[in-house]
Write a structure and sequence with these properties.
This protein has about 200 residues and is an alpha/beta fold. The protein has six helices and five strands. Its EC number is 3.1.26.4.
Length: about 200
């Protein structure tokens, strides 16, 4: 069972992102404040949960949260400011959507930038330790998966419905065969040998 939050006496949000290592699609971040009496036996780091469990959890988390926010940072911005800055920007934009604003921010991972003088703590593997970070990881993952399933319809040959934009062998083969799309991150090493790619 995960602990609810890092600072029990403060209004605290958890924040996390999904899709950092993908070759295509946005990086998606979420932030959430859970009530102090929240408990759930299934909730865990989204990577440890099946897709079915994540889909069950999302509406439940949205309904019982005090407040939550979700943000996509798209490919052009990732290519301009780099993936780490894009991830942090996504988390900050998600926190911006919260009412009330938190008194403390728990961040999954080891990098963050100060946000409006609100104290923050970076927690490595925090999505497996605290419910508010785990909840943010579930929201970020489900919203991003939904986006990838939608753009799959436009470019089915990359099978984003299944690989969600991650660098699977199948995804790289499709890039080799069909070139890249407007959804690919051009600053990423899209193929191991990174040939000049045709833009579609």
């Amino acid at each position: 069972m995960l602990e609810l939050k890092l600072k029990p006496d403060l209004i605290e949000c958890g924040t996390d992102e999904a899709g950092r290592g993908c070759l295509a699609g946005p990086v998606t971040a979420a932030a959430i404040i859970l009530p102090d009496d929240f408990s759930n036996d299934i909730l865990n780091d989204s990577k440890q949960l099946s897709e079915a469990k994540r889909k069950i959890l999302r509406p439940l988390l949205e309904d019982c949260s005090i407040t939550y926010g979700v943000t996509h940072i798209y490919m052009e911005e990732i290519d301009t400011i780099n993936i780490l800055n894009a991830s942090i920007l996504g988390m900050q934009k998600s926190i911006e959507q919260l009412t009330p604003q938190p008194e403390h921010i728990s961040v999954d991972g080891n990098k963050f930038k100060p946000y409006h003088n609100i104290p923050h703590t970076c927690v490595i593997k925090g999505d497996g330790k605290y419910m508010n970070i785990a909840a943010a990881s579930v929201l970020a993952k489900t919203y991003r998966d939904e986006f990838m399933e939608k753009i799959h319809e436009e470019f089915p040959m990359y099978n984003w419905k299944k690989n969600k934009g991650y660098p699977t062998t199948e995804h790289r083969e499709a890039i080799r065969k069909y070139g890249i799309t407007k959804y690919h991150r051009k600053s990423f090493r899209l193929l191991p040998e990174q040939l000049t790619l045709e833009f579609k």
